[in-house]
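Methods: holo model generation. Sequences were used as deposited, without trimming of termini or removal of tags, and paired with ligand SMILES retrieved from the corresponding compound records. Each pair was processed once, and we did not select among multiple samples. The sequence and flavin mononucleotide SMILES for this entry were:
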Amino acid sequence: MNGNGHRSANGNGNGHRPAKLRGYSAWSLVQHGLSRGDWPRTWHDHDMRDSYDVVIIGGGVHGLATAYYLARDHGITNVAVLEKAYIGSGGSGRNTAILRSNYLTPEGVRFYDRSVKLYENLAADLNFNVMFSQRGHLTLAHNDASLRTMRWRSEVNKHEGVDSDVIGPDEVKGLVPYLDTSPDTRYPILGALYHPPGGIVRHDAVVWGYARGADANGAHIHQLTEVTDIDVEHGRVTGVRTNRGRIATKAVVNCTAGWASLISDMAGVSMPVQTFPLQAAVTEPVRPFLDTVVVSGTLHVYVSQTDRGELVFGASVDPFASYSIRGSLEFTEGVAGHVLELMPALSKMRLLRQWAGLCDMTPDYSPIMGPTPVEGFYVDVGWGTYGFKAGPVSGEAMAATVADGAPPEIISSFGLDRFADGRLVGEKGAAAVGH
Amino acid sequence: MSDTHGTAPGPLARGALEPRVAATRSGWVVDARRSVADLVLSDESPLAKVLVKGPVTGAPGSVLGTSSGRAARTEVGGGTALVVGSGPGEWLVVGPVGTAAATVAAIERTVSGRPEFVSLIDLTHGRALMRLTGSRAPSVLAKVCAVDVEDAVVPNGGAFRSSVATVVTDVVRDDRDGTPSFLLHCERSTGQFLSEALLDAGEEYGIETTTLVGLVPEG
Amino acid sequence: MSLTTPDPTPTTTRARPGRLAPQPGEVIDRRRPVTFTWNGVTHRGFRGDTIASALAASGERVFSRSYKYHRPRGLLTADFLDPGCSVQVGDEPNVRGGHRLVEDGMVVSSQNTWPSLKFDVKAVNGLAGRFLAPGFYYKTFIKPQRLWPLYEKVLRRFVHAGEITADVSGGVPGETFDKRYAHPDVVVAGGGPAGMAAAVAAALAGSRVMLVEEEHELGGHLRWGDADDREALRDLRAQVAAEPGIEVLTNSVVSGRFDDNWLSIVQRGLPQVFERLIKARAATMIVAPGLIERPYVFEGNDLPGVMLSTAVRRLINLYAVRPGSRAVVLTANPEGDAAVEDLRRAGVEIAAVVDARAGDTVVRATGRSEVTGVELSTGARIACDLLVTAVGWTAPTSLLNMAGDRPVYRPQAARFLPDPQRMPENVLATGGIVGDGTVTELVAHATAIGREAARRAAARARAIGEAVPTRGGDAPALPNPDPTPVDVPVLAPADHPELFQGSTHGFVDFCEDVSSKDLVIAVKEGYDSIELVKRYTTVTMGPTQGKLETVNTVAIVAAATGRTMAETGTTTWRPMYAPVTLGALAGRIHEPVRYSPMQSWHERHGATPLVAGQWIRPEHYGDPAAEVRAVRTGVGIIDVTPIGKLDLRGPDVAQLLNLLYVNKWSKLGIGRVRYGVMCAEDGVVMDDGVTGRLGEDHYLMSTTSSGAATVWEWVEDWLQTAHPDWRVHVTPVTTAYASINVAGPRSRELLAGLTNVDLSADAFGYMQVRTGAVAGVDDCVLWRIGFTGELSYEIHVPASYGLHAWERLMAHGADLGVQPFGVEAQRILRLEKGHFIVGQDTDGLTRAYSGALDWAIKLDKDDFVGKPELVWQQEQGVTTQLVALQPDDRTTVPEEASQILAADGRIAGRITSSRMSPTLGRSICLGQLEPALAAPGTVVTVRLVDGRDIGATVIEGLAHVDPEGARQRV
Amino acid sequence: MMLLPCPWCGPRNATEFRYGGATGARPDPVSATPQQWREYLYTQTNPLGWSREGWYHRAGCRRYITVERHTGTNEVRSALDTATEDG
Ligand SMILES: Cc1cc2nc3c(=O)[nH]c(=O)nc-3n(C[C@H](O)[C@H](O)[C@H](O)COP(=O)(O)OP(=O)(O)OC[C@H]3O[C@@H](n4cnc5c(N)ncnc54)[C@H](O)[C@@H]3O)c2cc1C
Ligand SMILES: NC(=O)c1ccc[n+]([C@@H]2O[C@H](COP(=O)([O-])OP(=O)(O)OC[C@H]3O[C@@H](n4cnc5c(N)ncnc54)[C@H](O)[C@@H]3O)[C@@H](O)[C@H]2O)c1
Ligand SMILES: Cc1cc2nc3c(=O)[nH]c(=O)nc-3n(C[C@H](O)[C@H](O)[C@H](O)COP(=O)(O)O)c2cc1C
Ligand SMILES: [Zn+2]
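and the model returned the structure below.
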């Protein structure tokens, strides 16, 4: 936002006071129950302005969080979030909601740890219960090599102050009695990376909570608004075209995940991003028996049990690039087979529904964040299969990037230029299945 | 076989599948059991197997007389071999036990002098070969192989390579007296696994195992 | 959710709910009674009864309690979809009581019975209804945040569901699941009149047909119809039975449609397996699922005793169960009218027939644990114990939507209908999902659709036949399909009043306890698209997945937003159409394992198995340190069969090697072996191994065991896509050879007595290859190389003779003290020698110069894979460097992956390999380090996993043992 | 599951193949700048629409084939042997 008149001072640029979010509490619930009055709208519909200081493309957690922190931390409130369908219709509404920070590289660990910390206070911050359940996260090791990678991760994690340790099969069994930890299975469990602060969150609530917070601070959320082109003149962004007309703006943030390269192409910026479907599935509910999140990289599967009693399954991305989210039978066959290898007692549970979302995969499984060669065109993409957990920290960092015109330290390793420079941030070992 | 160095008996060859009741025949340790079941899986790994590679349309095809996707019996190297067009520019010649060297020599003779680049390799010991015979053989395959093996797509003499119980396998339909029969040819090290998967799939039809006809021990 | 005061009880005595005299269409077998228990109490039923019908016959009305409010629930649809009777059967949770047949000895219990199945908790319900508004969770438990885990624990205790047992062995012994593939020409989903007629027509037209019916027998709604329906049913069943081309699957369901008509079909109730998944590649699919009756929304609509017309017709006609004593029937269609007739015949008193077509309707149902009265729009209050509604249909377009269709709303028919425009060529629809009509009209439509499906299937069979190379002389002739499409008569949907909700609020989603009021609240709060309403309220997210609740949801959201139903649209239908067990999806698990020909020997000799990818290998035979010492001092043999091997032939092999390896190959003489490293195009080390030249145009390449498959595809890739003109044939021979490494100072001695190859140092030097006989086996390949650093020979024996050769080596070497050694000893030996392992001492970003491979990389070659990156890496210097490290405390072995810290506390590297060296009696390591710390003699800090720091010194070179390489060159 | 019409084997399930993606042409390794080379390494086209991409029939003929597929619908309209351009 250089030259745009906004200061980047935390909290109060432009004289704006961030709205204090309140209204939701047990007490207000009782009051509403008795009075039967209506709750206020969570966010509002607005007419579209001709111009905005910042246009954020994509109404997922990243776009909405960026809008929220632009207002809260930088006082930038003349902001539009454009969403072609409904908010959360992309990866943010389809993900299996696993939060953790036990990554492999020090940059990665610091980044995701900041996000987990923000998540820990998010309900209070947004006055919206996002139901972050820090139930612990287990990544199973079935062979030597993965045990070594687990240890590598746990050592880096510990060094960065993140609670993470390698535990043996007996401790694993203690945490998840349903796991078959006998040594004579096809993929014996040799140990696991245990990460107590990891867990699951109610993903939709995060989206709605940020939408409510951004809206309360003056941002406009435009659903059913699809960006069809981006105007670039003399190397600078001047506006975006949508199915509802043109918007003039000097700052555009691309938060479109699976569609990221299509949007970047509109601005003439090519991206090392490939779009792959990622699938997930739920079973019918059963009484809770699984308290932690369980991941097996070797078996390409992970599972958690929601408070509703369903098991939520995920795996690695589909084997070929596609924008189709119809899903495949191979996915459910694979997931079921692998889950039963881990927990044979589940054979009579029934799979209820499967779905898919799009993932913007990068070569090194780290995101691409920050400015681009086109002035005023910022990207917050490359979220692959793991970007939901990064919503808060990314929103915070992208807001700072737009406000200051330069990325803050915490995302400095994730710039687009790292590819041309050959400085990849290798997170594949920690992100391919565990998300 | 050159003479042995040392004093031990001549070398013993073993098929790709662990025999349940072992016996020795023609230098091979084989499964001594016979079967009269309607559905039978036999280990035919001792058969000579020679892989020929060359241009898709060229000497080997014209010499051996089959194209990719089809199999036929031909006289090669003094015996009758089943020549399988196992892929584009690839032929698998399956001959009687002990004929690999002669087969290689015979084919080399016929293709030599031709301009194309042709190579031969004896894979007798490198691949597992088994035969699944019985009227329910297609039903067994339908449990582990996604390719339709019905007459309309794979009639007798049809050959294809696909995944069988997740193992990449050459499948040759080579019926026996009108009964469906399939040769299955895969990497030797996965042969045992493949045979177990087939036995598992065939269990409900009463499958039994045996050894290659001709090597079945007497009595 | 509040309830009106109880109604006066009716005075007359009437027939009680229970079993009726035999009915003409009943499916129960009265000669075969069965006994089962329900919540510990013994009940009786007949063969053919479902759990629900048997319980209803003995007067049970409450089957479960609801998800959120714990309201008592009874039968609503009395079929698979019934949300009120999910029960636990033995170890199986969430069994559909309206579908599962009772069996002798079955142990059935209710799920979610808090506070108890029968206890009346009206007060709790009323209160809960007020405060458990949609989004209730999001608005509360916010502060103090640290209490959320506690709240969460409480919430989890209320989960409404069955249980799985903790028995990790899982399931009943011997109980299996199964899968198979199928290639039918036509799959018909739905075995009602339309499905049966379509199947018959397709079969008559020459198609192989699979007719799939979710219920236990064919017939669809004809089964519970009148005498004419039964007559039509007999006729259609006879036609199906007469067609050998039809495979009938009952108690089976088409659960999904995926790309290119890949269909998942679940077959249940088989004698040999619990459930079977059929994966059918159908040339065409005909979707004929009929219609699903829709509940009506009004206050009290979930009380036990409020049922759909199809439910009472099923109960009476199929199971001979009288569903109540005194009924009020709300009807808007002939199905409702027929239900009135059925009820009368069953001796149920009809207290009132409320004709919705005349504008009358029901305002609310009243009662505590079951319905006792009804208030009508006329103001009348009528006592009853049964309220039947027949207000319309939902077309189960699920399978069509999976094929790309998007349903369109037709107000005149009051339902969403498929949009034929959006259906692909290979999917057709018939029957009630398309329109209404007499059985004759239905059959006419379905017959045409069946013939059209067969025609399209034939065209496809022809196309496939022409594309596959397997068809030969005696293959049946390919079909010659008629080019003109079959003329399909119009099947128009009948007019139907739009009836979704009365004047009061009631339940919309019975599984999830979502009421119409919840939907309205959600819209008011801004969750105003159908998808957001769904996610905020969880409507349509329960086990029925919208089959009962979608249309009402859309109607209520449309009304609340002021949009039309067409604009509002539906949520997305997705697989599974009906839930499928994980067991069936998994089937028999095929996880290939690979064995070397010596596996039986290893097992007999007590080897500890090591799972290494697909291979099972000996980790050690008891004492790896002793195995190491045997190799260093005498001789050992190890089974290295998994080492990848590619046979390369042709005049251009040397060119290929030059391209793929970083080192040079043009001058490799016949009989020579060279070690090579492969990089990917990003310069990252990908694989390593040795390649030997066996003849003029004949090479044998070895790869790492885990890289074997990848390298083969890599080689083919370069050959086929970049250099198709090169004459090279590649054949994987990994397991064509049993590979044995004979290692140790006495290896020459051992082998000499067993081979015809001259082993003398002059005749067969280090890094050379020979072919010859070993243990009497011809055509063996011998490499004089060594991963262990000792004099050693790697012999590759034609695999059938592997065990023979191994046994001969053991026998012949007995007096030399030959010792088999496993993977662990080999890891130690190679670490002592400083040989790196790709993927362990390097990682996914390690370019070759970081692997200490300077000596191998030949930048003066014009080109090789990854060269530009290595040029730049050499120019700019490495970011990390592979080094050997010696911990200062010689007894401490830092665990692999221990981090190495720089002076400022930063991470500056890590230990990649570490062991206690039996040869040196001290700990030894390899590691990756920042170059500033990599100079020999530098002392670095290693952070142990227990948090302690120790010092370690970088040593010269990578080898701890025999850095000069003298031992292997003797 | 998607079917791929292998020019050698006929239509087969996609699981028999390995996806190779729409890799661009290899720049001249001698003259390529780091930018050009890394563009080749990391940036593939990612269209929503028709895409020409490589697949390897690993469980079948073991040939590399070039497939034209629509990335929105997974519809395939052609498949040729990459080396010989045979269909
Ligand atoms: C099945 C699945 C499981 C996952 N599991 C996890 C997990 O456990 N943990 C984790 O951290 N991450 C997970 N992820 C990844 C995570 O969901 C994503 O990385 C994250 O949601 C990305 O958020 P976003 O806001 O950047 O993008 P999205 O939420 O995808 O939002 C992008 C939005 O842009 C909109 N858009 C696109 N094009 C246009 C246009 N032209 N005009 C206007 N709007 C447009 C889209 O409609 C969409 O709503 C998972 C993903 C999937 C699919
Ligand atoms: N459904 C009714 O209750 C009913 C009642 C009266 C009249 N009708 C009329 O009858 C006609 C319907 O006849 P029809 O033959 O189309 O339907 P039908 O309802 O008679 O038969 C459809 C059958 O398909 C089965 N089915 C549904 N989905 C399935 C799936 N995915 N896999 C396997 N089986 C599945 C159902 O169990 C049912 O038996 C319509 O005109 C309708 O108006 C229907
Ligand atoms: C964490 C999580 C849990 C879910 N649980 C359920 C569920 O219990 N029932 C259900 O029908 N769908 C469930 N869904 C899937 C959604 O219904 C829906 O399929 C998904 O959000 C994708 O949207 P779409 O199917 O409309 O494309 C869940 C989704 C997520 C991300
Ligand atoms: Zn092929």
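Residues A 93-97, 203, 282, 310, 312, 352-353, 355; C 531, 541, 545, 571-572, 574 surround flavin mononucleotide (ligand 3) (CB under 6 Å).
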